[in-house]
Amino acid sequence: MPESESSASAAATLDLAALRDGAHRCALHDGRRAFVKVRRDAAPDFFAAEARGLRELSAARTLRVPEVIALAADAIVLEDLGTGRAGASDWEHAGHRLAELHSTIGEHFGFHSDGFCGDSAQDNTTDADGYRFFAERRLLPQLRRAHDAGLLDGSDGARAERLCAQLSEHLPVRPPVLIHGDLWLGNLHACANGELALIDGGAVHFGWADADLAMLILFGAPPPAFFAAYESARGTGSEWRSYAPLLNLYHLLNHLNLFGAGYAGAVRKVLARYA
Length: 275
Prior knowledge:
The protein is of the alpha+beta class. The chain has helices at 5-11, 46-59, 88-101, 130-148, 154-165, 167-170, 209-215, 224-234, 244-247, 249-259, 264-274, and strands at residues 22-27, 33-38, 68-72, 75-79, 115-117, 120-122, 177-179, 188-190, 196-198, 205-207. It has two domains: 5-79, 2-Layer Sandwich (Phosphorylase Kinase, domain 1), CATH 3.30.200; 88-274, Aminoglycoside phosphotransferase (APH), C-terminal lobe (Aminoglycoside 3'-phosphotransferase, Chain: A, domain 2, Alpha-Beta Complex). Helix content is 41%, strand content 15%. The strands form four sheets. A four-stranded antiparallel beta sheet has the order 1-2-4-3, with helices on both faces. Strands 5-6 form a two-stranded antiparallel ribbon. The chain has a two-stranded antiparallel sheet with strand order 7-10. Helix 3 (88-101) packs parallel to helix 8, helix 4 (130-148) runs parallel beside helix 10 and helix 5 (154-165) crosses helix 11. The longest helix is centred in the middle third of the chain and has 19 residues, at 130-148. The protein starts with a helix and ends with a helix.
């Protein structure tokens, strides 16, 4: 259903049923450009979760976020941000803005609704304990899924269970803050004017700020100026880098479950290091 009456009017000329699966750039009757994502096999609530996450990020008024124009069970219509190239000042600005986003503190870890990290359902049931939340809502479901699929064996599972019981020995106490939740480098999108924006908001929740930073160095990395600006704005250091592999274990497990055994070695490397 449309996000609002005005958005419905703006998107009325779009025939979503006529669009193939994939991403499309379309013109709206009011002159705006829209970016439309279509997936006929989308899980129930998949695009609704993305819309909720984008709205939450937008409400924080930090990094730019595309407006959600309209929503359907198998499609989402977003503001087209264009595609450009971020300059040095854009990266510094984004670092400051991400620090501001991470200053939005929540009452609990989790979110008011469940979401998706990629194609994997993400349980956001709230919890006051960050270690328990990370173990029970993030690591263990992915580990059991991998074990059941034959991607990990019993010794991997035993190590993982032991690690989950010892998280407080490896990770510092941190408050729950608003995070993107799937912040690999590709989800910091350079708009037409070079400004960096957050896209793909299905994994948004209140979690550890360090988890966003860790994922930003998992598949490529922003320039050093980005992290310098972030750390200056938050008054923190770079100690998160020392335990980033543990925070990224969730994403490595998710990739193992989504894309297959090629990620098993990376998962086992982290388990061997910490457990």
